[in-house]
Design a protein that fits this description.
Low-confidence stretches: none
Bound molecules: adenosine-5'-diphosphate, magnesium ion
Helix content: 25-40%
Strand order of the largest sheet: 2-6-7-10-1-11-12-13-14
């Protein structure tokens, strides 16, 4: 089989549950969880005569995502009914947007900052979720929880611009980063608040037409989306090489086996009979509203990443890590208000602080030391009053228990302050050199590695307190003399 002569074409459809307080068209609570069927007013239950009322926050969050992905925002929006019968859909239809998605023609950048690729966003539209059918709790019955029915979603549809499972992984990671960063959605794929369907086809390299696509559902992690795509590409190529034709169908991912299986063919696909929703008036988005949302948005991760690389001189890797989460950005931004030691600031956040967070499964918001105080610690280390390792290993664990103590006071208390007094260190250096005259001669004959031995001596004589920078400089000066 000649895999190399094929190219994969992939487009993703991502559903994100919006972090609104109430549902899309009623005042029911939109929270995840809660006892089954407790967030269900007559509107959610689809009782005859009840009317939907549009939740403005849904549009605000959809527009936020649209702006973050460089989309055009539509002024005149219509709602549409998507009709189908299912037990977890009491109304018999979902209110969605069909011909007039609120956001169109955007893009998301993937890849490392200098070799970026743009993945087109075809559309983002608003819709409501259905309830939840629970098949595994009872041996005879399917149980239905309508708490989720009517909660607001956005669906983000990409252009067929992705070419591999790896690119899909990057794209989805970027989407999740954005929705979390902007508090649009909690981005939890295991709980299903972020869901992804993958459309996959293959074609001969150089072909101008796309192949027939297959839609794969039921991947509950970004990694599984990649696995499903990788498998599907192989399966389709093997089928074509076998002389079979790919038929348009919907398949489901089996995470245990790492394979996909057919759910329904195109012939069995739904016909939703979309028509304009008669119970809701058209929605007009004023330019002023868009501008208000735009001006209230924080700098986006990609922009910050570029700024950290170009203006603060951080590596691409560090800049990407620092901008992965909103809470980290907030802290780092506050920290660099108090220090210009940018590299050291990044090292602290990505090193000792992150280790402390990880050890307790904590979030950056849980870090109790104020940014100004951490900046003061960086200064102490820079001045040689405290070594990095003493600060990270001995001071930090105590500091998080009493974060209001100033770092110099705490370092004093813990007896970690280094001796920087040159005269004092010079005396120790002289003693060390005098104790090993033969080693001094060897050093001068070219055995430069012996500097470690003298450093050890100076450290011992200072009881570990000598500032290594000062000691090294003095040793070198005297040995080279
Ligand atoms: P449908 O009408 O089946 O919903 P759409 O044209 O709306 O199809 O596309 C749905 C998704 O499938 C989009 O993300 C799009 O980029 C992707 N897609 C469309 N055609 C192909 C193809 N031939 N191969 C892979 N993905 C495709
Ligand atoms: Mg479609």
């Amino acid at each position: 089989m000649n895999k190399e002569s094929y190219e994969a074409v992939i487009g993703l459809e991502v559903h994100a549950q919006l972090l609104t307080k109430t549902k899309a068209y009623s005042s029911d609570i939109a929270e995840y969880g809660g006892d089954p069927n407790t967030h269900v007013s007559v509107v959610t239950l689809g009782h005859p005569g009840t009317l939907p009322v549009f939740n403005k926050r849904t549009a605000e969050l959809a527009i936020t995502m649209g702006l973050a992905t460089h989309c055009k925002i539509r002024e005149h929006n219509l709602f549409a009914r998507k009709n189908y019968f299912y037990a977890d859909l009491p109304k018999g239809y979902q209110i969605t947007q069909d011909q007039t998605p609120i956001c169109t023609e955007g893009y998301v950048e993937i890849g490392e900052s200098r070799k970026e690729k743009r993945i087109g966003i075809t559309r983002i539209h608003m819709e409501e979720d259905a309830g939840k059918s629970i098949h595994e709790l009872d041996p005879y019955f399917t149980l239905i929880d309508l708490n989720r029915a009517g909660t607001p979603l956005i669906e983000i549809v990409s252009e067929p611009d992705l070419r591999s499972g790896e690119e899909a992984y990057e794209y989805l990671t970027e989407i999740r980063k954005l929705v979390r960063y902007l508090a649009i959605c909690d981005g939890n794929m295991e709980e299903g608040s972020l869901r992804c369907d993958a459309n996959i086809s293959v074609r001969k390299k150089g072909a101008s037409e796309f192949g027939v696509k297959v839609e794969v559902k039921n991947m509950n992690s970004i990694r599984n989306v990649k696995r499903a795509i990788d498998h599907e590409i192989e399966r389709q190529i093997a089928a074509i090489e076998n002389g079979e034709t790919i038929s348009q169908e919907t398949r489901s991912f089996d995470a245990a086996a790492g394979t996909t299986f057919s759910m329904r063919s195109k012939e069995a696909a739904h016909d939703y009979r979309y028509f304009p929703e008669p119970d809701l008036p058209p929605l007009r988005i004023h330019a002023a509203m868009v501008e208000e949302i735009r001006s209230g948005m924080p700098a986006l991760p990609k922009e910050l990443q570029k700024r950290y690389e170009q203006e603060l001189g951080l590596s691409t890797y560090d800049a990407a890590l620092l901008t992965a989460e909103k809470s980290v950005v907030t802290y780092f931004e506050a920290l660099i208000q108090h220090t210009t030691r940018y590299k050291a600031a990044a090292n602290w956040i990505l090193g000792p602080v992150r280790e402390w967070l990880n050890a307790g499964a904590r979030d950056m918001d849980d870090f109790p030391v104020a940014p100004a105080q951490l900046a003061a610690l960086l200064a102490l280390i820079d001045e040689g009053k405290l070594s990095f390792s003493a600060a990270a290993q001995q001071l930090l664990p105590v500091w998080v228990e009493e974060p209001d103590t100033a770092p110099d006071a705490l370092a004093q208390k813990l007896n970690l302050i280094q001796e920087t007094d040159e005269a004092f260190i010079e005396q120790l250096v002289d003693e060390a050199l005098k104790a090993f005259p033969d080693k001094v001669a060897e050093y001068r004959n070219g055995k430069k590695g012996l500097i470690g031995l003298f450093m050890g001596e100076v450290m011992k004589r200072s009881k570990g307190k000598a500032d290594p920078k000062v000691a090294t400089a003095l040793l070198q000066k005297k040995l080279e003399a």
